[in-house]
Amino acid sequence: MEIWPSAAVEHRRGPERGELEEGIVLVDPVADVSGQRPRPPKRARRRNSITDLRGSGEEARASSCARDRSAVSVRSVQPQSLPLVCPADRAELALDAEAASYGCGTCGARYPLEAGVVRFLGGDDAFYEGRYLNTIRWLPRRDRGPWTWPLWLMMSGYVWAVHRHVPAGSTVLELGCGSGIRYLSHRYRALGLDLSAASLARVADIYAACLQVDLTRGIPLPDASIDAAIGSYVWEHIQPRDKPGVLAELCRVLRPGGKLVLLYDVDGDHPLYRRMRAADPALFQEILIDREGHSGWQDAAANRFAFEAAGLRPLSHRGKEKLLIGPAMYAKVQEWPGSFGRWARLGRRFEFGWRFQLYNAATRVLDESVGRFLPERWARVMVTVCERP
Ligand SMILES: C[S@@+](CC[C@H](N)C(=O)[O-])C[C@H]1O[C@@H](n2cnc3c(N)ncnc32)[C@H](O)[C@@H]1O
Ligand SMILES: [Zn+2]
Predict the structure, then answer these.
(1) From CA 234, how far away is CA 218, in angstroms rounded?
(2) How many degrees, rounded to 5, is the angle at CA 77 between CA 74 and CA 80?
(3) What is the pTM of this model?
(4) Are strands 24-26 and 254-265 parallel, antiparallel or unpaired?
(5) What are residue 212's DSSP bridge partners?
(6) Phi-psi region of 297 (alpha: psi -120 to 50; beta: other; left: phi over 0)
(7) Cα–Cα dist 201/288, whole Å
(8) What is the pLDDT of residues 72-93, one digit of tens each?
(9) Ligand 1 within 6 A of CB of 58
(10) Are 378 and 268 in contact, with CB atoms under 8 Å apart?
């Protein structure tokens, strides 16, 4: 029995967003919302090169595309079979191609296969369904040497950490993948897991499998079946009381020596947070936590404790954005009354295009130089790499 949902059914494709200009993406935020993509300027179609290096999801709603994919020569992973197990009893599931569903011989449960997504949830999640529909489309021309260095700039160094710690060809489960990262599908056998069926459907044609699953209710994969579990901006959405269970489940599905690589927002004493909290704690809670669904927002130390308590071995636990904050933060803070809001609206100039690239590069350089000597509690986000013993 195999999961190859994308081969079995028709699926939708997401809109392409962003175009190339001199190796820099011109992002079209409108396309994210409407799904429409205005015709790109002529010079933007010149070649496939470094495009968008921005974060994704709430950190950056807009994305990029490498338009000419023929120029990309990163290794494609061959499809292989991968068993799925029933979340209720861990019995192996069997695919019923005619009924387009997976069935459990033990408890009789059926899990439909729709638009390339295996649906393990009874219904759609009211908060997350269709909320994050952004695919990061940037690809290096070759998956080695200087061609891969731009990965260092992406998402606070998270993609670089994945590239460093997880060898090509590995089976990688992307937790809370939203609409995914195209690079992962070229380097790895990428499995996407998310609450949202619409988000998953957008990567169903490039990921090896897409599973609509609530992470807090178990992962429908067999023991020791994956080489790595990774995730960007999902960990802060998992409530502290659920984290030990999720980590135990990850330890079960990871093979010994497998890696967990996470990028997530953290609570702390970032100067911006300190000032906002002092000025209006209720508004702070509303804008930065409640509205975003950050029910698992904890500081770096509490998260490290959770990883270690689960028996994982942290290889690196690094705070980022201690000085400059990611431009998407300005979008959140702009609602703040008075001078704070005005300053944030000014900061939104760095959200797109070449200004974003410059700002992002400056942030990364600061993170990896001065930032290393600043208190860990100033970090706005963390990149953590753990190993399963
Ligand atoms: C902020 S988005 C990040 C999406 C993507 N990783 C990115 O960086 O753009 C958080 C994602 O986590 C998913 N998510 C939140 N809680 C989840 C849970 N309990 N199980 C599975 N996915 C979850 C949401 O559906 C959403 O797509
Ligand atoms: Zn079952």
Answers:
(1) 15
(2) 175
(3) 0.83
(4) unpaired
(5) 119, 194
(6) beta
(7) 28
(8) 333 333 334 679 999 999 999 9
(9) yes
(10) yes
**Using one digit for the tens of pLDDT, what is the confidence trace for 366-381?**
999 999 999 999 999 9
- How far is C-alpha 233 from the geometric centre of its chain's CA atoms? 6
**Domain extent listing, the chain:** 5-387
Ligand 1 pocket, 174 CB below 6 A? no
Q: What is the pLDDT of residues 125-148, one digit of tens each?
A: 999 999 999 999 999 999 999 999
Mean pLDDT of 113-127: 93
Task: Look over the chain and give the mean of its residue pLDDT values, rounded to a whole number.
Answer: 83
CB 102 within 8 A of CB 96: yes
pLDDT at position 7: 34
Nearest to 126 by CA among 293, 296, 331: 293
Return the SS3 of 317: strand
Nearest CA to ligand 1 atom 4: 178
The CATH class, in words, for 5-387 is alpha beta
Does residue 269's CB lie within 6 angstroms of at least one atom of ligand 1? no
In this structure, the residue with its CA closest to atom 27 of ligand 1 is 178
40 Cβ contact list (under 8 Å, min separation 6): 19, 26
- CA–CA separation, 54 vs 155, rounded Å? 6
Nearest CA to ligand 1 atom 14: 176
Longest pairwise C-alpha distance within the chain: 62
Give the distance (Å) from ligand 2 centre to CA of residue 356: 48
Rounded to an integer, what distance in angstroms lies between the CA atom of residue 50 and that of residue 315?
29
Tell me the CA–centroid distance for residue 94 and ligand 2, in Å.
Answer: 11
C-alpha torsion angle, residues 331, 33, 172, 145 (rounded to 10): -70
DSSP labels for 5-61? HHHHS----PPP--EEETTEEE--HHHHHHS--PPPPGGGGS----------GGG-S
Please work out whether the CB of residue 249 comes within 6 Å of at least one atom of ligand 1: no
Looking at residue 200, what is its pLDDT? 97
* 110 Cα: distance to centroid of ligand 2 (angstroms): 8
Provide the pLDDT for residue 340: 84
194 near 56, Cβ under 8 Å?
A: no
Q: Is the CB–ligand 1 distance for residue 128 below 6 Å?
A: yes
CB atoms within 10 A of CB 28: 22
CB of 109 closer than 8 Å to CB of 88: yes
